[in-house]
Amino acid sequence: MALTRFCQMHILSDNKQKLYKACNYAIKSPPTGPILCGKPILRSTVPSYCALHFQKAEKHVARALKKAGLNVSSTSKLAPKFHVVVAEYTRQIQNKRRAAQKALSENADMKEDISC
User: Fold this and answer.
1) H/E/C letters for each residue in 29-59?
2) What's the pLDDT band for 3 if we cut at 50, 70, 90?
3) Which among 25, 51, 28 is positioned nearest to 38, based on CA atoms?
4) Is the pLDDT higher at 105 or at 82?
5) d(C-alpha 57, C-alpha 49), whole Å
6) What is the structure's pLDDT at 101?
7) What pLDDT does residue 10 have?
8) What distance in Å separates the CA atoms of residue 80 and residue 25, rounded to the nearest whole number?
9) How far apart are the C-alpha atoms of 102 and 32, rounded to whole Å?
10) CA distances for 2 relative to 19, 41, 42, 83, angstroms
């Protein structure tokens, strides 16, 4: 890493350095809390993602926009409003939660039938 005596894996261990921070991409989201990537990136980077996770985040946004009916590659269309992106993302999350809740209720019904 530039301007430091630590390697890339240990740059965040140096409490005196001010140039780098950890990537904030949530790799997993267990019930105990999200597990973050943690790779060092420049502090000035916005959003706080390493190059790999920035590409993944762009793909997720492009997929959400496509599902909302907005083609990102088309230059003739206007850029989507932020509320459209948020609404589509919220809809996707709600659909996943409904599917999980339905699976849990079906599982509980099966257990109830077995115990009777």
Assistant:
1) CCCCCCEECCCEEECCCCCCCCHHHHHHHHH
2) low
3) 25
4) 105
5) 9
6) 92
7) 82
8) 24
9) 23
10) 9, 12, 11, 40
Report phi then psi at 69, rounded to 5. Answer: 90, 15
Question: How far apart, in whole angstroms, are the C-alpha atoms of residue 49 and residue 30?
Answer: 20
Q: How many CB atoms lie within 10 A of CB 84?
A: 15
Question: Is 72's pLDDT higher than 60?
Answer: yes
State yes or no: cis peptide before 40, omega within 30 of 0. no
The predicted structure's pLDDT at residue 2: 62
CA 93 remoteness from chain centre: 12
| The two structure tokens encoding residue 93 | 């999350």
Cα 39 from Cα 58, distance rounded (Å) = 18
Contact in structure between 23 and 49 (CB atoms under 8 Å): yes
State the chain's mean pLDDT as an integer.
82
Quick one: pLDDT at residue 78? Answer: 59
Write down the pLDDT at residue 69.
79
Task: Verify cis geometry, omega within 30 degrees of 0, for the bond prior to 30.
Answer: no
Which pLDDT score is estimated for 91?
87
